[in-house]
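Re: the multi-chain job from yesterday

Posting the exact lines I submitted so nobody has to dig through the queue logs.
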Amino acid sequence: MSKSVTYEDRLRGFDWSIAERELEFREGEPLNIGWHCSDRICRQGKGDKPALLWEDHRGAEKRFTFDDVRQLSNTVAAFLQRLGVRPGERVCLFMDKIPELYIGFLGVLKMGGIVQPLFSAFGEDALLTRLENAQTTAIFTQRKHALKVRKILDKLPSLKHVVIVDAEPGKLQQREVAFDLERETRVDQFAVHATLRETPSVLHYTSGTTGMPKGAQHVHYSIVGQYLTSKWVLDLRDDDIYWCTADPGWVTGTSYGIIGPWSLGITQCVLDAGYSSERWYAFIQKHRVTVWYSAPTAIRLLMRDGTDVARRHDLSSLRHLASVGEPLNAEAVIWSEEAFGMPFHDTFWQTETGCIVITNFPGMKVKPGSMGRPFPGIEATVLDPRTYEPCASAGRVGLIALRPGWPSMIRAYWNNQTVYDSKFRNGWYLCGDRASIDQEGYFWFVGRDDDVINTGGHLVGPFEIESALLEHPAVAESAAVAKPDPVNMEVVKAFVALKPGHRGDDDLELEIMNFIRKKLSPLAMPQEIEFVDSLPKTRSGKIMRRVLRAREFNEPVGDLSTLMND
Amino acid sequence: MDELKEMVRNYVIREYLEDGDDREVKNDTPLISGGIVDSFSMVSLKRFLEKKFNIQIPDADASPEAFDTVDSIAALVKRFQK
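And the result, structure tokens for all chains:
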């Protein structure tokens, strides 16, 4: 949003058809995210414009224009067709932040497949759960990650093709096939599959309190929300150099690391390297980044390293900063003013919403610590947790709820209608978070309304961790809860009761931590394990996580009348 | 010092690389910025160092830079060894 356009201006006469018109989409006609983010941009005469400036931890660089992206995504799509992958089948992308991930994403969509991006740090159990649930047909991966796929391949009869993008000659194993994006003969013309607005596009797995992760199923029409929020909230303009630090294994990395910027024809940079404040600032300086979308955890790490590191670099190119993943604390907003001369603008949304729904707009007064106000076209409120009616008075804490119907909202959980239905009350979609709304309509985040752990902006489900813990030979029972953390907001803490004959000491703690890290992911690894004799349970035997969580947060434990063993 | 580095290097290879991963880990290989050890996994690496060398590393000193190579980790351990 240009600073001369106010929030109120945007609200007046708002209709999602604004984005439909700009995207040249007409009802009933095909709509394909892959085509819209590449071919359409080239048709606008931007074929020679850089689309991706990529760099890895060694400093190796690659550049791709929009015409490169168009042709190479055609090449991926044609390759999948040759393999026999059919429209509607799930194709997983299980890679680091390499160009094949970004371009492959569009390629899968162009041939009508459903993209299933998965975080490359997932361990074999986390991978198996998600590939099994989605009945995935093909997976693109790198040599180092293929080692995890090989371990579970026998359990995945539906997985017909393991595509290795950096294969070594003569080292392929069963079901593996090599695909070298840059050496393949480029496909200039490809008949993009005529997907429609409601054709499934992306399947992102997300965690809840109960059960295993669920596949949040998006459709091609989601581009309408991602396009307009990128334009108005991230304020992306034609001459911007944009950097989204999120990994496309998670929804921010696809909605705003691929679809949003490329549907606008914006040049984006990607740094495929672990966190280092020095390196990040050098990257901004080198590429003259103008718009930067990051996460509170990263901002707090930058804060910890101090403003001096920032001042050693020329960051004058920056003109707009935004943040997502967890609430941005007021201190971080104030610090960013000091370090960069401008605040980070907090944005609120989640895998299920597909696009930003509550946000601080450029030009709008930023109240440090606030989530901001609803995006035009989004009806948002907080509901009384007992009646599920909107809270009548300002300042009351309730459940964040959205009126369904915006373009990027999920259409289903993959093969799980029951859980999908459980997300709605009185015609409202429940986000699973609690907040209050002030007199001026700003939302203020309070916390999760369930047992899901928000660590570094990623939601981790306790059930999946507890299930994996039980696979360790020493563990009799366990509970995984959130524990406050100054950098990651929350981290996983596990309470573990051991089987007879095992001693809870430092050795065992480290062994269990590494056990979970390898099975699930570093995010799911408990950062602390407390060995206990027993866990608090209800009389029916259900573990009361809320009691353990309340102790970690120094909060009242609430009603304990159903507690069995306290 | 060489023995200490060897111990850390072997631990990183054993715990953070998949069996069959042929990437070479030298004493100056970037571990954090190179994506071998992520910032979340630093906690288990820190726990290993504290246990193995009987030291306490304050959180403020457990920065990604300090854990970025076998060399920097060895220097960190030396600093906190009595």
